[in-house]
Amino acid sequence: MIVREKQNWLRLLFVWRGSILKDILPRLVFLFLFSVLVVYFRGKLLDYDFSFNPVPLTFIGIALAIFLGFRNNASYERFWEARKLWGSLLNTTRSLTRQAITMSGLSANSPQVSLFVHLLIAFTYTLKHQLRQTEANSDLTRLLPTSLATSIQKGQYKPIRILKELGIWIQQRKQEGHIDSVTETAFDYNLNKLSEIVGGCERIANTPIPFPYTLLLHRTVYAYCYLLPFGLVDSSGWMTPLFVVLTGYAFMGLDAVVSEIEEPFGLEPNDLALNGMSKMIESTLLEMIDLEAPFLPPPHNSFFID
Amino acid sequence: MIVREKQNWLRLLFVWRGSILKDILPRLVFLFLFSVLVVYFRGKLLDYDFSFNPVPLTFIGIALAIFLGFRNNASYERFWEARKLWGSLLNTTRSLTRQAITMSGLSANSPQVSLFVHLLIAFTYTLKHQLRQTEANSDLTRLLPTSLATSIQKGQYKPIRILKELGIWIQQRKQEGHIDSVTETAFDYNLNKLSEIVGGCERIANTPIPFPYTLLLHRTVYAYCYLLPFGLVDSSGWMTPLFVVLTGYAFMGLDAVVSEIEEPFGLEPNDLALNGMSKMIESTLLEMIDLEAPFLPPPHNSFFID
Amino acid sequence: MIVREKQNWLRLLFVWRGSILKDILPRLVFLFLFSVLVVYFRGKLLDYDFSFNPVPLTFIGIALAIFLGFRNNASYERFWEARKLWGSLLNTTRSLTRQAITMSGLSANSPQVSLFVHLLIAFTYTLKHQLRQTEANSDLTRLLPTSLATSIQKGQYKPIRILKELGIWIQQRKQEGHIDSVTETAFDYNLNKLSEIVGGCERIANTPIPFPYTLLLHRTVYAYCYLLPFGLVDSSGWMTPLFVVLTGYAFMGLDAVVSEIEEPFGLEPNDLALNGMSKMIESTLLEMIDLEAPFLPPPHNSFFID
Amino acid sequence: MIVREKQNWLRLLFVWRGSILKDILPRLVFLFLFSVLVVYFRGKLLDYDFSFNPVPLTFIGIALAIFLGFRNNASYERFWEARKLWGSLLNTTRSLTRQAITMSGLSANSPQVSLFVHLLIAFTYTLKHQLRQTEANSDLTRLLPTSLATSIQKGQYKPIRILKELGIWIQQRKQEGHIDSVTETAFDYNLNKLSEIVGGCERIANTPIPFPYTLLLHRTVYAYCYLLPFGLVDSSGWMTPLFVVLTGYAFMGLDAVVSEIEEPFGLEPNDLALNGMSKMIESTLLEMIDLEAPFLPPPHNSFFID
Amino acid sequence: MIVREKQNWLRLLFVWRGSILKDILPRLVFLFLFSVLVVYFRGKLLDYDFSFNPVPLTFIGIALAIFLGFRNNASYERFWEARKLWGSLLNTTRSLTRQAITMSGLSANSPQVSLFVHLLIAFTYTLKHQLRQTEANSDLTRLLPTSLATSIQKGQYKPIRILKELGIWIQQRKQEGHIDSVTETAFDYNLNKLSEIVGGCERIANTPIPFPYTLLLHRTVYAYCYLLPFGLVDSSGWMTPLFVVLTGYAFMGLDAVVSEIEEPFGLEPNDLALNGMSKMIESTLLEMIDLEAPFLPPPHNSFFID
User: Fold this and answer.
1) pTM of this prediction?
2) Which stretches of chain B are DSSP H helices?
3) Which of B16, B18, D51, E260 counts the most CB atoms within 10 A of its CB?
4) Is the dihedral angle over the CA atoms C283, C285, C288, C290 positive or is it negative?
5) Which PANTHER family does this entry report, sorted A to Z (chains A, B, C, D, E) (predicted)?
6) Are the beta carbons of D102 and C70 separated by less than 8 Å?
7) CB distance from E261 to chain D under 8 Å?
8) Distance of CA C184 to the CA centre of its chain
């Protein structure tokens, strides 16, 4: 999520920033040294020849391909579903803001509409804090009247509390006679969607890919990489460390990327930019009621970096 | 679903808890001893050489890759769809609770709203009991007035009975003049969703992956693993048992994980944490009407362990 | 769909009931004898050596893997979509029954509600009969008043006729002043869903996977299996028939399972249990209006066997 | 889509009708002769040996597997989505007809309802003509009053014009006081769906799979097939032409099927049976208002042949 | 997206226009020359033999197949989802136009309806400009009254501003008494959809496939292609450059196509034809209110070329 502009194919080969290579370099160096030792000692260690024909490795390779393919797809789907949920959060809060402006019988710059929009922004931030297990307090007090912020702060499921407040807000418009039950239902339809977004994010955060998959893949990858030098030493000689490190780069690299992608709400480099997206939602909702965001929104198409 | 915190890549290689290795260890030991015997006796048994070229194994390997890939994907999709249905159950019961609080014309702490919320909680528990074929009685009597509990207990399709009671509850609000048919329809929309959740769970529980797939895969995996030592003994000698056990770990391990994942409503280690999710739904719904759950809800992001 | 309880991994290797082996055994025996002949005659037939290097088989193997993987996935998706449509039929008829009980202004045991529910049950049975091209008459006369049964029996698209009757039933409630157009629309929403279910089932029944796929796969599988003994005889000798039969079991077995799964509304062992599901819908709808099904509904989680 | 009844596995090997073999036979014959020449001249042509080790072919084979697998899946998804859109067209026109009969305040045999149904049928036929770029005029004049047919005929987007007429029809019912805005909205919901069906079909017709994919796959397939004889001649001798043709049958056959499936609205043998489906929609809608189709509708489950 | 008509299989082999070959030709020429050097110097360079057995390449090949397969699928899904969003834009603007004509109580040629339709067209163009980061001003002033164009021009999120204007337009119809809240909700339902379309496009534009995937794939492809000549030189001699270039064409070609497809809103040859689609939406909406588009709309089924 760091480098955006299209790159020349040649320069792309030597990019360092944003590469997974940074993370796995020590492991690759170690694997390289190990391979060098295997080549150096071949046939010499205690008069026993540990090298072997590479055929058995292709059998483990089949299993590896299935594991890697599956775990990669499942993780990317989690990542992309999480992104879709936050995209849907953007769409739904925009729709609710539009409804508050044009269907509630109130003018766009009335304090009630402003409260409604700030509740939506607070909803976004509390969801972010819940998913990252950080403290929502400073955002709540920044966005909401103190008494409301305090009451929400007490709850265990803060976004759901705010959802209830949004429902009460709509109920009040109805009691004032500004809206009838048809319009109330149109609002309610979007509140249902917000409820689904919270539940969807909780589902991804609370239910990881079953742990045995991670273990099976992780162990098979490392067993494979460390058996590789023994299988290649006879046919490849001093080229062995090169091949082993290349293969190790591909497999360990994928294993490492997948571990980041798998939990998309974390704080690792390739996780979702929840901070950037929260600020973007704040900025677009405030623009709709002609207020300005308290920070400079980044230029389009390049701001989703946490 | 047991180990949550990110682990060091090195320590991950030696985790025992939550590993499928526990379950398949006896089979791997047996396969190991079998391979040792094959290597020891090669060429000696009745003057007949049972070893062979490993090429034919790659042909069976193609079939194996297709079977494993398919059954793994289909099983994981069942698991994840089941999880989505329970996530949807959470969202929909929350939405219905919000509707009961803000749209029914009753206050959040009225006994009727409390009954409605307890019906939703009872719905959740009876669905869990139906899927696991356990007895719903104790949860029904804990949550509902005795007469209602008794009447629901008699039915074969208990969640559907509760759905009908929820419909009657809404009908009563309409007869009291608190809601009109528009609001009734907004409630009804979410009751339809609950109906879809029950049916979706029943579908997964009642229609397994066609049995011949399980047999084809299971038999091909074991035939493959037990032919492997004959194919490798000539080229790999005393390294054979190591390769066979590694390959066996990968294939038998996946076969075993998939068998658990496939029926996500069971009680095996990697099945869905229906107990944890039911308690979570109880706790979040009660919080919405300012009641406390009769048990300590676990901290976020780490409680879905049955 | 026959064996449900979890089986010991060892016993699973020797299950006969529900195995596809029953269906393809004669073909495997024939393939076995053919392989024996190839091994016996190698190099002897007219002084010409028909054996060859197995490498070319791996090239055909790539094509085979793509065909099998694709056709298997496409067939299973058809099977599972058909199952989802019938699951949706269950959910929607339950929702319509709940609506008839709680939203039509009639009591649950009124004759009109009973007619409505019996129309839904008749809808289910006529859909089953249409998909299996069997005679709906006996079920229609069992469930509906004679005049109605006769009029529906005459139509070519019977489920659509019943859908129209359901629409007329709702129209009558409106004309009686029991429901307004909002409630009528809530009913109508679920009738739209029934219309989608009929169309979805017709789509799967009327549009098979394009025939050339079936031919391409079927022919490649058999060509591959019958070339295999020539490719293996040099390297594997008398082990050849064993490998050939194992590979044949895997590929021919998958080809045979897929042919059954592909047309999920048929009567083969692995097709959908439309009888069981129809009875289950009848039983759950009747329970909702406190009537008993005319047959003993099977215990949960084990009844979807036709 | 031509052969429907289940066939004996043996007879299936020799089916000619509906096979793709018809289309690619000349190419296979040419490939066969080319292979024969390669075998005949090996080592002799200008004293230079053009044969080579088949290993490099496996490297191209990896790319081929990815291309074929991808393009096949993407094409089949286009085919199946197109089929789903036409299935949805059937469902939605049936639902609109049911709504016109039971919710418009008009009787099923009134001229207005008949006009409405004929507009739906004309919608179906104009969509078919737009997708196949054929002339809609004869169907329009057959189905609609002359003035209406003429006015629609003038438009560039005919189905959208008819959609507008359907909207005007509903508006007239409202102006007559037969329906209120709730019922109008229920109709409108299904008109939105028709709009989505038109747009979905236009999307598939207007946006093919990006052309470079087709080129990459097509060229790799043919390069692969024509290199194959050089790679196999050393190890397989006079068996080479057999293997080459078999592999060519599989790869060229898939390439040819995929080209047909990819554009599902065309007129090739495996494209969608838009004529059959249009007639089926006409027949089922007319049955709902007790009119007869002007042609004999084919028996169920066997009529989708164009 | 350039060549539409079905081509003869033979001519398809020699198409140049629209081929990715144009883009990667220099890289292939370089790879070819590199391979020639490898073959020429084999065994001679400093008395050290750099050639090696090709087996290790198959191990890297497994990783390559997983990477290429995944990135290709993920990119194509992005491309196709983006296309679906623009298809949905077409459907939804058509539906809103139909609603404005038939449900707003205004006649199709009233200035208000014309304003509404022009707002929809302006919505389409501003979305295009936002996604391509181009200047919306000329289209805004062409389509909208100056004051409105100026006010929208000032906003950062222009399509959302127009969405708000559409909401205000509907509100005005309600205040005039032309529509009730039911019809307002029917409009609002489609405005929600437009909001989802904007958010969906922003999601695809702002969240690329995680960058490490691109790097891992790109580097593995080039490492693989440049190691290939060393692995093939021993067995293939002077045929090596041919094989290397063929394999390089397949892998580098796919890598290059995928890079274009991945960002579907760009201006490269295989990106979406946003200009063509915007004009098509303008033309079809104007036709619905009997106005003519200010440009000649291209003939059907061949106009989506930017």
Assistant:
1) 0.91
2) 9-12, 21-41, 55-103, 111-132, 137-143, 146-154, 158-175, 181-206, 211-236, 240-262, 274-288
3) E260
4) negative
5) UPF0187 PROTEIN YNEE, VOLTAGE-DEPENDENT ANION CHANNEL-FORMING PROTEIN YNEE
6) no
7) yes
8) 34
